[in-house]
């Protein structure tokens, strides 16, 4: 048993950077797949990203929101890890095991309450009942549009991969995240310029990205096409909402 543990330590120590990132993302995927609370956190993160886009928040407010979201995710990940370790040690009831799980759950609760307070402070005065003022907020927040689009695409791709259970976060799986981002960039470039030469060049670059994923047998043709459609759809939808 000791030799096996030492072997695992040696294997982890000699993993490449990409493999270590894949292992880390796989831990996040597993938590999303198995924990309903983590699914709820994903949903709330998407909603907050959309609100941040439309409510034109400042950089310090955005920083507070990002830190609160990160703390909540980290607390839930540690809570799941502690529960797994306790269950690995014993499957029978033990007061110390209960204490460990309760404390871990308490940590999640504290970060969740903190996130609620931050959300209230940041968004309470931003939410305007007047419809015209809401649409003006949409237009004035365009400076955050590109960043928010990329974040939403990455989150949606990660959620789909965690549900489909195929591939890793950075390599393979359904759909293709690289293709989704490539299609998103083409859509953004098209919306920012009327120059046909720039549009054609962006299309060529996107095709090269898709071709490299297929030729390297990282993705199938269908996975890249779905990724392109997903990236285009999210980008187009957000741009339409912003420009209404």
What is the helix fraction of residues, given as a range? over 70%
Number of strands: 0
Kindly report the average pLDDT value. 78
- Succession of helices and strands: HHHHHHHHHH
Global shape = flat
Class derived from helix and strand content: mainly alpha
Strand content: under 5%
Membrane topology: Multi-pass membrane protein
GO cellular component, one term: plasma membrane
Domain Phosphatidic acid phosphatase type 2/haloperoxidase: 171-242
Binding site for substrate: 76
In short:
One of its GO terms (biological process) is phospholipid biosynthetic process. The protein is built from 10 helices and no strands.
What does this structure look like?
The chain has helices spanning 2-13, 17-34, 36-54, 59-89, 95-123, 131-140, 145-164, 177-192, 196-215, 221-243. By secondary structure, the protein is mainly α. The protein has a domain at 129-244. Helix 2 (17-34) crosses helix 7 (145-164), helix 7 (145-164) runs antiparallel to helix 10 (221-243) and helix 8 (177-192) packs parallel to helix 10. The longest helix is centred in the first third of the chain and has 31 residues, at 59-89. The radius of gyration is 21 Å and the shape is flat.
Annotation keywords:
244 residues, phospholipid metabolism, mainly alpha
List the helices and strands and how they pair.
Blueprint: H1 2-13, H2 17-34, H3 36-54, H4 59-89, H5 95-123, H6 131-140, H7 145-164, H8 177-192, H9 196-215, H10 221-243
